[in-house]
Amino acid sequence: MKIHEYQAKELFREYNIPVPVGYVAFSKQEALESIKKLGSFPVVVKAQIHAGGRGKGGGVKLASSEQEAQQFADEILGMTLVTHQTGEVGKEVKKLLIEAGQSIARELYLSLLVDRETAKIVIMASTEGGMNIEEVAEKTPEKIIKVYVDPLMGISGYQLREVAFGLNIPKTAMKEFGAMLKNFYNMFVEKDCSMVEINPLILTSDDRVIALDAKVDFDSNALGKHKELMELRDLDEEDPLEVEASKFNLNYINLDGNVGNIVNGAGLAMATMDIIKNAGAEPANFMDVGGGATAEMVENAFRIILADKKVKAVLINIFGGILRCDIFAEGIVEAAKKTGINIPVIVRMEGTNVEKGKEILSNSNLELTSAIDLADAAEKVAAAVK
Ligand code: GDP
Ligand code: MN
Predict the structure, then answer these.
(1) Are 107 and 96 members of one domain?
(2) Which of 41, 158, 222, 253 is positioned for an S-S bond with 192, CB 3.0–4.6 A?
(3) Which of 99, 107, 128, 197 is the catalytic position?
(4) Domain that holds residue 340
(5) 298 and 374 share a domain?
(6) Within this chain, do residues 201 and 91 fall inside the same structural domain, yes or no?
(7) Please, are residues 58 and 9 in contact by the beta-carbon 8 Å criterion?
(8) E-state strands within the chain
(9) Which one of 19, 134, 203, 213 would you pick to mutate in the ligand 1 pocket, going by the greatest count of ligand atoms within 8 A of its CB?
(10) What is the pLDDT of residues 183-235, one digit of tens each?
(11) 3-state secondary structure 176-197
């Protein structure tokens, strides 16, 4: 689960990671109050959306007077911000962070993430902060330092120093940097993060270390342990269909293709997406209704997929086990009665009570195409979208 920069910086404050003084603003009026509260200039006006690259897209502006700060706040609030992470449709800006501007001597990069290969937490750091780190990784990978921390051992002094030396942290800032990195690591572990990033982490001209940007991503599977973090969720920033699906415990991910699919079981869902691609079409989603789905869950899954305007045909692939085929068929019939079907729907069903399930579907007078097997289903659905 991602959170906004202003929320991440709040968390940084709890862990004594230095951040600039700043206030979140939800309206022009609040922006003006925040500017006045800061009282000195420059002031930085920052769009709050769950995507990076805001600076390049015009969502981060440095103002040298109250008038200018106010003007930037007016411009950025409500704008549709397009960055390399939002896609071309962009994202409407509904919140701002108004911050005291800092004087930057150097911009560094620092992040922590779980490295699955080594089963460790990797610290990534670079002297080339502020800009696109993907570009640094591609063109000058030697400029990215990696230090692997064993989660059972925790972070050691020599590892803090290894990162500090790699970043050429001046002697006077060494202690402060070490404390900051240690706190950052503790936050990562205690809050069950999957990735945290500060880009840029700056050194000021008087050798202080400050996190100028803040990105925090929590491991969604651990959120049950952190009720306080759930309050930070911003549904405005999430895909509306994914939010709807999560209400019904459906494992749903919206994708770019036009073949909708409903499957029971994550493994079968992956295989179904593969055969759709193999037949020359592109899946519009991943939708796993789960092994123990009810007719109601099936109904909601079907409704959500039909609400997706880019979907031109649907492939339903069910292996009846715990979810019996007849229960599944009832769910489909109920859903179809309510929403109506105006695109081709191909059904492949096998397993417990398959005959009964097929009977329910054929007696329903719904326009469904049945497939004999997986390959047949994929070919039929691919043909339907061509
Ligand atoms: P991002 O573009 O979404 O990653 O947003 P950032 O928070 O990283 O801001 C983009 C850039 O704005 C930074 O890399 C800085 O160069 C610049 N910037 C942000 N805050 C300040 C500030 O307080 N002072 C100065 N001089 N520049 C800033
Ligand atoms: Mn940044």
Answers:
(1) no
(2) 222
(3) 197
(4) 239-385
(5) yes
(6) no
(7) no
(8) 22-25, 43-47, 60-63, 80-81, 91-92, 96-100, 104-115, 120-126, 144-149, 193-204, 209-211, 215-218, 251-254, 259-263, 285-288, 313-320, 345-351, 368-370
(9) 213
(10) 999 999 999 999 999 999 999 999 999 999 999 999 989 999 999 999 999 99
(11) HHHHHHHHHHHHHHHCCEEEEE
Residue 12, SS3?
helix
For residue 318, what is the domain's CATH number?
Answer: 3.40.50.261
CB-ligand 1 contact for 52 (6 Å cutoff):
yes
Distance from Cα 201 to the centre of ligand 2, integer Å: 9
- Contact yes or no for 110/199 (Cβ under 8 A): yes
Tens digits of residue pLDDT in 102-143: 999 999 999 999 999 999 999 999 999 987 888 999 999 999
- Same domain, yes or no, for 199 and 122? yes
**Domain boundary, last residue among 214, 236, 258:** 236
Retrieve residue 70's tokens. Answer: 């106010």
Number of domains in the chain: 3
